[in-house]
Amino acid sequence: MRKARLTFRTAAMGFFSSITAFDVLIEAIGILGIIASIISFQCKKHSRLLLFRSANESLFALQYGLLGAYTGMAMNVIGVVRNVVFTELVKRKKSTVPARIAFGAVFVVFVAVTWAGFKSLLSGTAKVISTFAYGSTNFALTRVLIFITSTSWFVYNLLVKSYAGCACELLTIGSIIVSLIRYKSDKKKLAVATADAAATDTTTDGTANNYTATADTADTATDETTLDDTATDETIVAQTADATTDGQNIIENVTDEQKEN
Length: 261
Hints:
With 261 residues, the chain is an all-alpha fold. It has eight helices and no strands. It is globular. Residues 225-238 and 257-261 have low confidence and may be disordered.
């Protein structure tokens, strides 16, 4: 047991003694890139998502450059420019289709220029797919496409020995899954809220109609009462007029009889 502990301690010391300041710098850059990537897929606005993706790609472009992985570096530098262009186009409510095609072509050219075998194909394919993903304002589609590209980048990072990059892609995949679940949950909540609002509007309209009907009925009853009162008043006036006429006739008859006598 003691011998095993000594062996483990010796191996650990050998491992840590072999780590240089350069290795620490490389991994530190990768960790910052990981943080930016995780935050990006929790954003609900297109502009914020691209902002943090740009931070992620800038950091990994620096890391790939230090590792000598120039295809990955070139892909990420162009990716940052692409994100800035897409952000402006979406902000101005303009189509991103021409820009998607243009940047897709640029990525293909840079893959050819920096060709280093299968790993170059992986990074180039990932960037072309992500170009069409980030040009869309459909967050669900964006997340699904980035899920595919993250798998490609994971393999690329293994090949160029960017272990922070591997960790980043694994966490990115996990973040995408969480965001898709949240997106689905938010969509359900919105549907329920919309249904409740519609039901409330219907109830309000029905109540208003009942109030209107009641008011109309009351007005009708009032009008009928008024008509009845008016009719009664006219009858009384008519009867009074008839009585007055009869009285005058009686007086005239008495006067005529007096004259005859």
